[in-house]
Design a protein that fits this description.
single chain, alpha/beta, Rossmann fold, 7-stranded mixed beta sheet, 6 helices, transferase
Length: 199
């Protein structure tokens, strides 16, 4: 049922979260040496395409085939051949290889699935590799700029730090920002931003 919701949303809108990459993600990509990167729940490919343009080899997945097809169509139009994009449910994800970076950009999950998935993500990062995460905080519930309506799907810093306690936390902060990412992420928002490294 959720898959149908997202397929419909991606079908009915030219873009859901815009064409430009997430700014926090962009900052990481712009200041780090290209390598391999994994992008779960990648949607229409805005972050995958940016990383690929900067020389990264990108693996991405989403459970919306509509989103995957839109992403690959954009990548093809730009002449990008370094994006491998699968249709896959997060619940079915198993780390079969390791990456220089994994980026979780607004990947909101119920607690049991979140903990299990985040544990797998740690295993998908190479020694020396990075995790980049931006997500809505619990305080986002007061804003109308996007994100889950269910408070249980919003995050707090202690929970995220506990999920990634096997990584070295470089920065973990909560702040209010102005989102301008298409029609569904727009306005004042309260977000968590995390960068961690596997030592």
């Amino acid at each position: 049922m959720i898959k149908n919701f997202w397929d419909q949303r991606y079908s009915e809108n030219e873009t859901v979260y815009g064409d430009e990459p997430n700014l926090f993600f962009k900052s990481f990509i712009d200041t780090n040496k290209p390598g391999t990167i994994l992008l779960p729940a990648e949607g229409e490919g805005r972050n995958a395409i940016y990383a690929a343009q900067k020389g990264y080899t990108v693996d991405a997945f989403d459970y919306s085939e509509v989103a995957r097809n839109k992403a690959l169509k954009k990548a093809e139009a730009l002449g990008l051949s370094n994006i491998h994009y699968e249709v896959k449910d997060i619940a079915d994800f198993e780390p079969t290889k390791q990456y220089d970076a994994v980026a979780l950009i607004y990947v909101h999950l119920p607690e049991p699935l979140r903990k299990a998935f985040h544990s797998k993500i740690v295993n998908a990062i190479k020694p020396g590799g990075y995790l980049v995460l931006e997500a809505f905080s619990k305080e986002q519930i007061q804003f109308k700029s996007g994100g889950p309506a269910d408070p249980a799907l919003l995050y707090d810093a202690p929970s995220l730090c506990a999920d990634f306690q096997l990584l070295h936390i470089i920065s973990c902060g909560q702040k209010q920002i102005h989102l301008s990412e298409g029609k569904f992420h727009n306005g004042t928002a309260d977000v968590l931003r995390l960068i961690a490294q596997k030592l």
